[in-house]
Amino acid sequence: MTRDSTTPAGPGSADCSGSFLGPVDLTGLDGLFSTPEKDLALRVRGFVDEHIRPNIADWYDRAVFPAEVIPELGRLGVLGMHLDGYGCAGRSAVEYGLAAQELEAGDSGLRTFVSVQGSLAMSAIHKHGSEEQKNQWLPAMAVGEAIGCFGLTEPTAGSDPASMLTRAKREPNGDWVLSGTKRWIGLANLADVAIIWAQTADHGTGRGVRGFVVPTGTPGFRTEVISQKLSMRASVQCEIHLEEVRLPADAILPADSAVGLKGPFACLNEARYGIIWGVMGAARDSFNAVLDYSATRMQFGAPLAGLQLTQAKLADMAVAINKGYLLAHQIGRVKDGILPGVLTPAMISTGKLDNCRVAIGIARDARQMLGGNGITLDHSPLRHANNLESVRTYEGSDEVHQLTIGRALTGLGAFTAG
Ligand code: TGC
Asked: Could you tell me the domains of the chain?
């Protein structure tokens, strides 16, 4: 290996940049964040280092979601952290993003739990719920005493939720009766409450797709865990079977903002936003893993880090990660109203689409650079890459986001062939 005088330290010297993001920070990302923002990120990183990293390989291997960490996440203050009031922390979008990338540096399954709880279930109640619904559920969900899930996707309605088959029928006494099946619903088997989206249009007064707050103990509510997954193994996804689930009239999310598909889509925006940041954590962790490994792995009489082909890959990965953080930061500051601009669906799609495909590429490249050792759970990149297959797909596939951007660019919707 040849090292010239401009090289401040060796590979793996995580602190040479002085950045809280470590050696990958080539563009002064550290300076984009305030001290309290960085402190929050480091506090979440400390939690991940203590509670997640020592165990994640075992959980992933055994396909176990560590439900015991939920109260810890509540104490950490990350559940519904970007929501105001009702026991929520009222943090900024950027702080939420920083927390998401630290959690996903640990594992996408952990960040997904926090997203489903905060960005989907809690945010549905916070955006669209009655005061009674908010007071009943949000304080308990913020501390992890109550778990929520979000039922939109169905076995035959993924990218096209407008085609959902789940029906809510209004009874003469005002009750609602829900029937249908939801699929790929995170943590539904552990949830105390499910936000279920159902079509009411063919049943009178409901005005299209509406959301319902469903206590999971309600008769007729049943979950089935989806097994044999090759991705997100330290997380749980379920089918929800709704067999004539009878709910009182006030179980509906009453706000006008929840009438029609814009109700769930407003929540998906929040979850997609968190993904823009989260996946950069997985990418950064993959990069760090291979930077460390290449410093000590000797081949042909030299550490891999001293080989040009290794450095070319590391450079490409670092450049892509810097661009991903810059994109996340830009969108986050717009969301917070700190930078000018309007947070549009196309803006969120731009971040979700590109940061997911960049992150999965980095995780796969890192696995390749680890050689055969990279296929075991001793190293994180293949676990991240496998997880990112799910993350890239849920909350809108690449194609959904390409077409959302395409519609914004052209004014023409191209979701259907006709
Ligand atoms: P479209 O006609 O475009 O819109 C219907 C209404 O919704 C409004 N809208 C939005 N509002 C807020 N945010 C957005 N991003 C919005 N996009 C659309 C729109 O203005 C309209 O409002 P209004 O007042 O006129 O009625 O609807 P479309 O059906 O043509 O949309 C097409 C498309 C493909 C963009 C949309 O269907 C889509 O985003 N599909 C992807 C769905 C998706 O991401 N599904 C994943 C859900 S994840 C899940 O269920 C499991 S939760 C995760 C877990 O548990 O782990």
From this structure: 3-142 (1.10.540.10), 148-258 (2.40.110.10), 263-410 (1.20.140.10)
